[in-house]
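User: Hey, quick favor. My workstation is busy. Could you predict this chain's structure for me?
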Amino acid sequence: MTKDFENNTTVINYSAMDYYSRQFSIEKDMILSKNDKTVTWVNTYGFDFMEDFREMVLANNMDDFLLRLLIGKSHGSKVIELENQLFITAKIIKTENNTIETEQMFFVVAEDFVWCIQEKVGDHFDWIRDRIANNKGIIRKKRADYLLYFILETIISNYKEKYNGFDVMEEMFSANTKLEPTPEFMLKIEEQKQLTIQFKKSSYGLRDIMVKLERLQIKGIRSKYFSDLREQINGLLNDIDSDINELDSKVNLLFNIQGHRLNQVMKTLTIFSVIFIPLTFMAGIYGMNFENIPELRFKYGYFILLGVMLLVTLISILIFKYKKWF
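Assistant: No problem, here it is.
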């Protein structure tokens, strides 16, 4: 095995009475099953150790099919039952940073070990390591399936915490009646929607894993732990669907308000147009430069025309009032 593999791999071994945690050692930690009552948790960061993975698989008499699964670096979300072992692959969202990144994770699980392979460095499992180190709760009294439950439960909890931390929609719509659907604003809306859909897609992948884990019939792995996880991920999916519907509803409301404003402006302009069109017509007639227009020589013609214009204006306004157009 290469030194890089050792540097990127840690191992924890524990039981109700014993515990150790260290950097992976070829000499001491190659065999994952200790044939005692301990549980081994191996965590590897990176996929660039295929030869080392091969040696691990062969040394532990794992199913050869694991090699093909590990070589294929992108699997989506799957649960594959092997002989006395379980292979799980999940495409998850990394929640450590402010940005949203995806990461592929592999789990090889047996009755007494969990081998976790992560695409990128960093995770949220330190609290599990702390509980194991300090013998908190019942985790050290349980087998590897309970450790897998804790790891998956942590991923789901991180999803919830990260998703609930996004309050962009609340900020954008805090005063939705004053917002204008500018290109910049609509771009923010689309970014928020794509972020929500990304969470939804990844959450569906986790739910599929939980459903399959519930139906497991493999030695040493109890499926009862994963029913609660399925309920948790379903709750998150319900929240996401609710937020997507709310987002669509508020966008529709925004456009309806904008359309109402436009209608009010158009109605006002139309009213002014209807009032001034006959006035402009009369002014146009008496503004023509023909000599034979009798009214032009009438002493009170100008004042009579102003009176007619005023009368037409008043009649138009009364009609609009009667029709309740304003």
